[in-house]
Write a structure and sequence with these properties.
The complex is a heterodimer of chains A (about 270) and B (about 250).
Chain A: H1 2-20, H2 29-34, E1 38-39, E2 49-50, H3 53-84, H4 87-102, H5 105-122, H6 131-167, H7 172-183, H8 185-201, H9 204-209, H10 226-233, H11 242-271
Antiparallel strand pairs in A: 1-2
Chain B: E1 3-14, E2 17-28, E3 32-36, H1 43-50, E4 60-68, E5 71-72, H2 78-84, E6 85-88, H3 99-109, H4 115-128, H5 132-135, H6 148-160, E7 166-170, H7 178-191, E8 196-200, H8 204-210, E9 213-218, E10 221-227, H9 228-233, H10 238-244
Helix pairs in contact in B: 3-4, 3-6, 4-6, 6-7
Classes of the chains: A mainly alpha (about 270), B alpha/beta (about 250).
């Protein structure tokens, strides 16, 4: 099984590398990563440009903002489920959380369009589409993963340590904050890695509410994520063209960012 | 002998199942009392009712009273009760911190933040369980990295940091080897000079080695109690005789 997984991962990376590398015959790596002009088709008096810095920034910005929201809400929900709710309540609530995870992302996108984008439009945000809307909708999508996996590890720690704290006369919330949550720290970080991977790769819902404009991301401004630009343009890119290879290269960058975060957090966990 | 803690007509029901019926028993000060009896007789339930931890068990209903001296435990704030009655579990559960942080956890919660004072508490309690010389250079090492026996002694020391009058132990040696068991037994013998110790044990030989007093339960009822010598040498009740003779267990 491990060999199969490694083989699939190697295949994906080799395939993307093969399709991505030709773009660097025409665009330098530095220009591709740090350039902020993306003009895949020649305009009047203007050549093509393939700079994805704004897309990288938007992907990282939206994902981390979504994580920030999801972790704050999700950790609270996980603590409630593992340390406060009765086992009967847990049995009742868990299926709903699983159901949330099963909702297709396009449905979240619709909700984002109809609720969040309208709300931001009313509050004066031009067109309503913005990075914050994307981060909020993404955080809702991350919640079920964060809540179910982190409440599992918190529950294990609670079973171990809550009684020990209570037996010392220590307040339940003091034990939760000072022992149970720190004891689950590594597992919580692992849940976050999984969630951030999902956040960075999420396409449809983010694409529907972020505005899809090649702009440096600001909280209430439009922007465009790497996954969104690939999804929007892959259908129109001519097979074998620089544009086609540039989109693969953007995908490669996304994989590299995700792997870097993965290894970074895993190293951090080892040191903890 | 003056009693440190006693129960009066204590009854405990889990849902519809009666686990303890009308238990009236006292636990003398500065002595070791063993609670023994066959599996499911209510030993642990009786132990947990002494510091009210029984209320943490879902569906547990308690009637009757527990007294520390002349004070009813039901009228004491729970944190105060649990500070005065320490509890050590069957499986050692050190917090996933250093030994030092484990031992300063309760004192810090109770407002003791003075570093010198905390250092003194750590040293004093580890000495009480005979562990200081063994691990004095590893106080900042994770408590989880020590052997089972050492972890259990760390847990006993941690229970002592809240300055209890009574120390409850629920089969503290059941997961340990012979050597660790004997070290813990020696520790408990020393600790009884300062604390009242109540221990639940399955091990009759251990009860015989350790106890000053023995409480024998069967089917949630108190069958017999008395000083260890009389209890083991000339038990009054036929059920006690059968239990000690290994007819059931």
């Amino acid at each position: 099984m491990t060999f199969f997984t490694m083989a699939v991962l190697a295949f994906v990376i080799i395939f993307i590398l093969k399709e991505a590398l030709p773009v660097f015959r025409e665009v330098s790596l530095i220009e591709f990563i740090f350039g902020n002009e993306w003009m895949p088709v020649e305009g009047i008096g203007k050549g093509t440009h393939f700079g994805i810095f704004n897309f990288i920034a938007a992907t990282v910005y939206v994902s981390f903002l979504a994580m920030l929201i999801a972790v704050s809400v999700g950790l609270g929900a996980a603590v409630y489920l593992s340390c406060v709710a009765s086992s009967r309540a847990r049995t009742f609530i868990y299926p709903f959380i699983d159901l949330l995870a099963g909702i297709p992302s396009v449905v979240y996108g619709f909700i984002g369009l109809n609720v969040l984008v309208r709300f931001f439009l009313k509050t004066g945000v031009h067109t309503g589409s913005c990075v914050l809307a994307a981060a909020i909708i993404l955080s809702v999508m991350l919640l079920p993963y964060l809540v179910s996996s982190s409440s599992e590890s918190l529950l294990k720690s609670r079973e171990l340590y809550l009684k020990a704290g209570t037996a010392l006369g220590v307040d339940k919330w003091y034990t939760i904050a000072s022992v149970i949550i720190p004891a689950s720290g590594k597992s919580l970080l692992r849940c976050m890695i999984l969630a951030i991977g999902r956040a960075m790769g999420e396409t449809m819902a983010v694409m529907m509410v972020i505005g899809n404009a090649n702009l440096f991301p600001t909280l209430l401004g439009k922007s465009e994520s790497i996954a969104a630009v690939i999804a929007l343009e892959m259908g129109t890119a001519v097979n074998g063209s620089t544009h086609f290879h540039a989109l693969y290269a953007a995908g490669l960058v996304l994989i590299v960012i995700m792997l870097a975060i993965n290894f970074g957090v895993k190293n951090l966990i080892k040191k903890l | 002998m003056e009693s440190a803690i006693r129960t009066e007509d204590l009854c405990i029901v889990y849902g519809k199942k009666t686990v303890l019926q009308g238990i009236t028993v006292d636990f003398p000060k500065n002595s070791i009392t063993s609670i023994i009896g066959p599996s499911g007789c209510g030993k642990t339930t009786l132990l947990l009712s002494l510091d009210d931890m029984i209320r943490e068990v879902p569906d547990a209903m308690v009637s009757g009273d527990v007294y520390i001296g002349k004070e009813k435990t039901s009228s004491m704030p729970q944190s105060e009760l649990r500070r005065r009655v320490g509890l050590v579990f069957q499986t050692p559960v050190p917090f996933p911190f250093s030994v030092y942080d484990n031992l300063t956890y309760a004192p810090k919660y109770y407002g003791n933040r003075d570093r010198k004072n905390l250092d003194r508490i750590v040293r004093e309690k580890l000495e009480m369980v005979g562990l200081y010389d063994e691990i004095k250079d590893d106080l900042w090492k994770s408590a989880l990295k020590f052997s089972g026996g050492q972890q259990q002694r760390i847990c006993i020391a941690r229970a002592l940091t809240a300055d209890p009058d009574v120390l409850l132990l629920d089969e503290p040696c059941s997961a340990l080897d012979i050597k660790s068991t004997s070290i813990i037994e020696e520790t408990l013998k020393k600790l009884k000079e300062k604390y009242t110790i109540i221990i639940v044990t399955h091990n009759i030989a251990q009860a015989r080695r350790l106890s000053d007093k023995v409480v024998f339960l069967k089917d949630g009822r108190l069958i017999e109690e008395g000083d260890a010598g009389t209890f083991f040498n000339s038990p009054e009740h036929p059920d006690t005789n059968d239990f000690l003779g290994g007819v059931y267990g």
